[in-house]
Amino acid sequence: MELHQLEYLTAVVDHGTFTAAAAALHVSQSGVSAQIRKLEHELGEELLDRTGLRVTPTHAGVAVLPHARAALAAVAAVREAIGEVTGLLRGRVTVGMVTACAIPALFEGLQRFRAAHPDVEMRLTESGSDDLLAGVRDGRFDVVLTGLAGPPPADVQAVTVVDDELVLVRADAGPVPGPCGLADIAAGPLVTLVPGSGVRTAFENACAAAGLRPVVGLEAGSPEAVLALVRRGLGIGVVARSMVGEGTGLAVSEFDGVAVRSQLVLLRRSAASPAARALLDALTAAFTGTDTEGAETQQAGAP
Length: 303
Known about the structure:
Blueprint: H1 3-15, H2 18-25, H3 29-43, E1 48-49, E2 56-57, H4 59-86, E3 91-98, H5 104-116, E4 120-127, H6 129-138, E5 143-147, E6 156-171, H7 182-185, E7 190-193, H8 198-209, E8 216-220, H9 223-231, E9 236-240, E10 250-253, E11 261-269, H10 274-288, E12 296-299
Parallel strand pairs: 3-4, 3-5, 7-8, 7-9
Antiparallel strand pairs: 1-2, 5-11, 6-9, 6-10, 6-11, 6-12
Helix pairs in contact: 1-2, 1-3, 1-4, 2-3, 5-10
């Protein structure tokens, strides 16, 4: 059994296909397939189900994956320990960002980190809030920017970087409307961001708490697209207040009787690598415009 076989196995599971895994690893697809076959032959069990459109782990694969990730993490930790001694970070960090994220501070933080640590390989993946939280806990991601409902789990560190009020926007064709309750607008048609985005998750959680199922008629991958659809009278928009700038030609109103907020947090596991800790510091500094002490850092169990 060789380490690169374990790396190939986890990459195929994470990316869903041999082709995507090979592209991410910068190796040939046939090489990935052959090495995993060798691993399966050595273990005497098939680890991957190749019958569907997406490759998934078998029962044996599910049992092997945590150990494969732990082995790879241990090797990375050895390399990083040497880096701490020499003062030069190496290795790899995998970053996850919430769907439809277009926040300049995130990209500025990644740029800062790359400039400070050019020998660290960096990967960036977009996904939904639930998958990002699960991924940072199971080791697929080192640091994620995601929406978080409630306190963070005990095994992650959370730094709150965005706490914004959700508002309603309409085409400006008359008096500015007053506040509206969730029940007044849940029947739609609503225009908002795609599922998995921080705004969409916060809005749906608020509706679920009120026993409502909102009718979203149109969804888009960027705040600009949502506002453009609303401007053309295609529905009532649900966005974060900071997304609505001056001169948009839209009427903005608040929710009545309930505070609906979209909160974005940076998450990393408490037992993180030196590179992951340095990345979190760089991202926190970019979001706050200060050093990391300027942000609100919350461990589970803290107020």
